Amino acid sequence: MATDYIYIALFLLAAILFVVTTLLIPVTLRFLKIIPHNPTPVKGSPFECGVETIGKTWVQFNLRYYLYALVFLIIDVLVVFLYPWAVNIRHLGLTGLIEMLILLTIVTVGYIYAWKKGALEWK
Amino acid sequence: MIGFNYSLGLESYGRTLPPDWPGGFWWHWLVFTVIILAFVMTVLLGFVWFERRALGRMQARLGPNRVGPFGLLQPVADALKVLIKEDIVPSQADKIVHWLAPVVTLVPVLMIFAVVPFQDGALLVDLNIGLLYVVAVSAVPILGIFMAGWASNNKYTLIAAMRDVASVISYEIPVVLSLAGVVLIAGSLSLNQIVLTQNTPLILLQPLGFLIFFIGGLAEINRTPFDLLEADSELTAGFHTEYSGMKFALFYLAEYAEALALSALIATFFLSGWRGPFLPPWLWFLLKIVAMFFVIIWMRATLPRIRIDQLMALAWKFLFPLALLNIVVTAIEVLVWPEALPWGLIPVNIVVAGILVLFLSKKFTLGWGRIEV
Asked: Is residue A54, in this structure, part of any structural domain at all?
């Protein structure tokens, strides 16, 4: 069982190595003077359709979806309970189904509440 | 009955590792790592060419046809061009995050393929929680996209990144819930096991689940009509406006790799993976992937981009209730026929899916102005 995850970890290393190597090729070529590198102030400014940028970029602004994020969290917890049940449904039988229906009902009530409260509106 | 019987082919594949697969730990790892990376990269180059040619045909133009026969070498030429481009980083950018973002975007997409079976037992690891692993890993690339949008120090990229986080958070729910239907029928989270139990392709038994997974998947990988994070008309080029050279190429690759992963996962979950008559299994798998990718291209050529509020409403008010209903219906069906779902259920399920979609569509109207639900 642990072997599986060693495979995954080794594959992760291989994938990172692959991608980083791909990124390092242009860096090497730049030192070999094959790729040009001459930054200018205009080149280094943010590209906003030719208009000069006004003010800072990293400012506070209204995250419209923190309510979505809250509902997402609740339903993700539902999913945590849902998958083990889904795998074992044939053993758990009718009792399992009824219990899951109770959980789904609770979540659905919360979902309807969130909808009526306007938490699902993007405005 | 529908004319293909997969169970005949199954015995000949055998249920264990075929003896000619390399047995030792390191050999197994090396061979499959090389196979996966080579497969993904080759198919990606093919996809880039295929998408441009197919889009060209659909828009009554030619598409790339100068480099090599039928323009087949066009992706190679693009790769060479991108390799020797100057790498421009905005002077105000957060350099380290800017550099790391493509890595964080592409690596998790590659990780998905570690558990996708190309043939019976022909995969890097047959994780017993494979589906959960796929769901978890496939949510990571948005982190890279957000890093890119944030680090570029450009307002458009930041807005694009915010939109992407919102859409992925929203569409994660219907996608995960629709996969629960697959798990209910297969009774396992291992991808290889899911393929082995699909004597009938699950798209027939789970038409609604397939629909939700496909739409949600399209939204998660930001393909048209859900490509709001690179809506060219509003956000210049979206989150990768400030990227050039190889880093841009990696984002481009990641986008296609996500499309490839989505096609591969749909093939595995809903189209019975590598199983099929006559042809070798890996060829069936590839054919199903290409067919799914063609549908994605087709949608790109057909559908206009939707608005962000429509995008969110579609996930939360349309797909989510459908996904819940799908789980309940599937669970009842599985409990009534615990051994295997009968063939007779296929038309019933398709009709039920159609009725549910039609009924909810009546409730869900998009006006000319904002959404009226």
From this structure: no
